């Protein structure tokens, strides 16, 4: 898209090889009355010359049910292994996810680093708070959760995560 229109937003509209623009550009053409002439011209053409804009001459690729992108890699915490989805669901069921407020700013659907450390030690039989912090940092890096303001690593402190 970038090479064709020098834009990353969608939609980007083309009439054959002519770049029209985005949705607001198309609306402006419609309001000015110029769109109908472009549509009429488009209907009588043979299609775009650019291969990047031509319709593929092959059928869509069928999805492979054994494709590794549809299978989730397991995340192991001690002897317990779960999928990414399984860990997220486990956290949603068992962590005290709630509204937290700090300096008059509300952070909905959060838990604290202390709550996660406590839960990891209890649920996954970790031996120390330090070990739980390492697991928490690994889960943060795996994007299982994130710090609400994205400004530091995972800590065993009452800092908000979601």
The proportion of residues in beta strands is 15-25%
Order of helices and strands: HEEHHEEHEEHHE
Structural class: alpha+beta
The description of the largest β-sheet is:
3 strands, antiparallel
Instruction: Please count the beta strands (DSSP E, at least 2 residues each).
Output: 7
Uncertain residue segments: none
Q: What strand line-up does the widest sheet have?
A: 5-6-7
Helix content: 25-40%
Shape: elongated
Please characterize this protein's 3D structure.
By secondary structure, the protein is of the alpha+beta class. The chain folds into two domains: 2-43, no CATH class; 74-161, Winged helix-like DNA-binding domain superfamily/Winged helix DNA-binding domain (Arc Repressor Mutant, subunit A, Orthogonal Bundle), CATH 1.10.10.10. It is built from six helices and seven strands, in the order αββααββαββααβ. It has helices at residues 2-5, 23-32, 34-43, 84-94, 113-124, 129-141; strands spanning 13-15, 18-21, 74-77, 80-83, 98-102, 105-112, 160-161. A hairpin with a 2-residue loop joins β3 and β4. α5 packs across α6 (129-141). The chain starts with a helix and ends with a strand. The relative contact order is 0.09.
Summed up:
The protein is an alpha+beta fold and 162 residues long.
Provide key terms for this protein.
single chain, 162 residues, alpha+beta, 6 helices, 37% helix, 19% strand
Protein topology:
Layout: H1 2-5, E1 13-15, E2 18-21, H2 23-32, H3 34-43, E3 74-77, E4 80-83, H4 84-94, E5 98-102, E6 105-112, H5 113-124, H6 129-141, E7 160-161
Antiparallel strand pairs: 1-2, 3-4, 5-6, 6-7
């Amino acid at each position: 898209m970038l090479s064709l229109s020098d834009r990353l937003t969608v939609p980007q509209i083309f009439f054959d090889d002519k770049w029209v623009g985005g949705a607001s550009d198309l609306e402006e053409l419609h309001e000015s009355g110029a769109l109908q002439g472009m549509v009429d011209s488009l209907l009588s053409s043979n299609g775009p010359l650019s291969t990047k804009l031509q319709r593929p001459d092959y059928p869509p690729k069928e999805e492979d049910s054994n494709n590794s992108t549809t299978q989730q890699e397991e995340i192991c915490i001690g002897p317990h292994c779960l999928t990414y989805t399984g860990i997220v669901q486990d956290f949603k069921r068992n962590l005290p996810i709630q509204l937290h407020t700090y300096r008059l700013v509300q952070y909905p659907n959060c838990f604290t680093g202390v709550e996660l450390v406590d839960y990891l030690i209890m649920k996954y039989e970790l031996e120390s708070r330090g070990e739980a912090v390492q697991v928490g940092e690994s889960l943060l890096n795996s994007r299982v959760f994130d710090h609400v303001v994205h400004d530091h690593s995972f800590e065993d402190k009452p800092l908000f995560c979601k």
